[in-house]
Specification:
- This protein is mainly alpha-helical.
- The protein is about 55% helix and about 0% strand.
- Helix 3 crosses helix 5, helix 4 crosses helix 6 and helix 5 crosses helix 6.
- The longest helix has 16 residues.
Length: about 140
C-alpha cells in the first residue's frame, strides 16, 4: 500500500473506522462504541455494596437498606412520576442531593451519602428513620 493511499485512509475517519471494524470482525472481535463521558450509574448490586462499605454497622445498614428497597428498589435513576422524588432515597426535589456531589443524578455513592446525612440529621439514624417509615409509609 502506498504512502499516499495510507494518508488518504487516515484522513478519512469513516474509512479508517470501517477498516478497523472489518479487521476486528474478521478476527472474531466485537467493537463497541463508548460515550465520550460515560455515566456513573451503578447497578443495584453495586449500590448495595457501596452502602455496606459506608454503613459498617449491621443494624444501621439493614434499616437504610429497607428504606431504599421500599423507596426505589435500589434504582439510582428511580423517579416518582407523581411527586418528582428521585434516586435511591427518593429526595424531593432530587436536586437537593447536589449538596453531596455534582454527580447526584447518576452516582450511588453520592445519593447514599446524602441519604445518610438526611436520615442522621432528621431522625438521628437510619434505624430511627426506618421506624418512622414503618409508622408512616414515608420518611
Amino acid at each position: 500500500m502506498s504512502v499516499s493511499r495510507i494518508a488518504r485512509r487516515i484522513s478519512s475517519p469513516k474509512k479508517a473506522i470501517t477498516t478497523v471494524a472489518m479487521a476486528a470482525a474478521t478476527a472474531g472481535l466485537v467493537l463497541t462504541a463508548a460515550p465520550a463521558h460515560a455515566a456513573t450509574t451503578n447497578s443495584s448490586a453495586q449500590a448495595r455494596a457501596i452502602a455496606h462499605k459506608m454503613i459498617p454497622n449491621a443494624a444501621q445498614y439493614a434499616a437504610f437498606s429497607k428504606i431504599v428497597e421500599h423507596e426505589s428498589g435500589w434504582d439510582v435513576d428511580a423517579m416518582n412520576s407523581s411527586s418528582g422524588a428521585y434516586g435511591l432515597v427518593q429526595a424531593l426535589p432530587g436536586s437537593k442531593m447536589a449538596a453531596a456531589g455534582s454527580d447526584w443524578k447518576t452516582n450511588a455513592k453520592t445519593q447514599i451519602k446524602w441519604g445518610l446525612d438526611y436520615m442522621n440529621s432528621r431522625y438521628g439514624s437510619p434505624t430511627a428513620a426506618w421506624s418512622f417509615w414503618q409508622s408512616n409509609g414515608w420518611y
